[in-house]
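Project outcomes to date are best conveyed with an example. Our students and postdoctoral researchers have been running inverse folding experiments weekly, and each run begins with a structure described purely in tokens. The record below, which covers 270 residues, was selected by the lab manager from last quarter's runs and is presented without edits.
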């Protein structure tokens, strides 16, 4: 899919920005001006799930870069491997290609795991890790079997399971469609990666970091983020009330506020 075709395909999802392709092949959007914020989506999602946050950040005076990871969304044409290491390398290449000095990186769940695999942090001013996953608390083998039995049904149920707030039926249908559009090969590879992932970086950590977690997250316990804050230097926890796993949809304003606060910490103004 060319960047122009990908752009046209996503207009119906609420994002009419012009898309580009990175040197590693990822499709990404780039809008606005100001401090760059890179938004990295989660497992079986794509860059369109950031549409509300993207609008808010651009309106607040930030530049937003929203890639689709290899195998997902507009980057579904890219061949595997669909590993966290590959996604991290692609993201590092994107930061280098765009010369994004002082960028803020925001990752949701699987996207947060990919950010934690980044090989270097020289160009990063701060990180927001939303709903960071942990293999210890999730039934990934059971999930794999359910996906192989009925992937469309699993996708629809997942769209509801990651939310705590009761959204419209249209929103759940849209979100379920995003899940189901992920090629099964890619989805299974992601589950296998998550089944081995723990956010156990060493205590030395050289960028301001905020761990954002929904208080009602039924997918990953907020204790995972609490434990991370205890281990990581210069880290804060934002526990979002009345919120499930999918903070970007359940409580958009709270996530925006956490990113703005992070920008202040990274810039030395908070």
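After processing, the design step wrote out the following sequence:
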């Amino acid at each position: 899919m060319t960047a122009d075709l990908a752009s046209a395909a996503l207009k119906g999802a609420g994002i009419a920005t012009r898309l580009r392709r990175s040197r590693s092949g990822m499709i990404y959007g780039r809008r606005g001006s100001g401090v760059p914020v890179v938004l990295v989506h989660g497992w079986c999602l794509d860059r369109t799930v950031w549409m509300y946050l993207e609008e808010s950040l651009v309106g607040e005076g930030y530049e937003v870069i929203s890639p689709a990871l290899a195998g997902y969304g507009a980057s579904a044409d890219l061949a595997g491997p669909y590993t966290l290491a590959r996604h991290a390398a692609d993201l590092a290449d994107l930061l280098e290609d765009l010369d994004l000095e002082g960028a803020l990186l925001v990752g949701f769940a699987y996207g947060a795991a990919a950010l934690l695999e980044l090989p270097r942090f020289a160009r990063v001013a701060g990180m927001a890790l939303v709903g960071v996953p942990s293999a210890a608390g999730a039934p990934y083998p059971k999930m794999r079997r359910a996906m192989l039995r009925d992937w469309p049904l699993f996708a629809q149920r997942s769209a509801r399971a990651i939310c705590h707030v009761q959204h419209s039926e249209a929103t759940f249908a849209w979100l379920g469609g995003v899940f189901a559009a992920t090629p099964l090969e890619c989805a299974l590879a992601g589950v296998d990666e998550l089944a081995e992932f723990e956010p156990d970086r060493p205590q030395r950590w050289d960028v301001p970091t905020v761990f954002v977690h929904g208080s009602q997250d039924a997918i990953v316990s907020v204790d995972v983020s609490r434990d991370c804050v205890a281990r990581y230097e210069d880290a804060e926890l934002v526990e979002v009330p009345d919120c499930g796993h999918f903070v970007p949809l359940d409580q958009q304003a709270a996530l925006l506020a956490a990113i703005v606060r992070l920008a202040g910490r990274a810039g030395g103004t908070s």
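The chain is about 40% helix and 15% strand. Residues 1-16 have pLDDT under 50 and may be disordered. The training component of this project remains on track.
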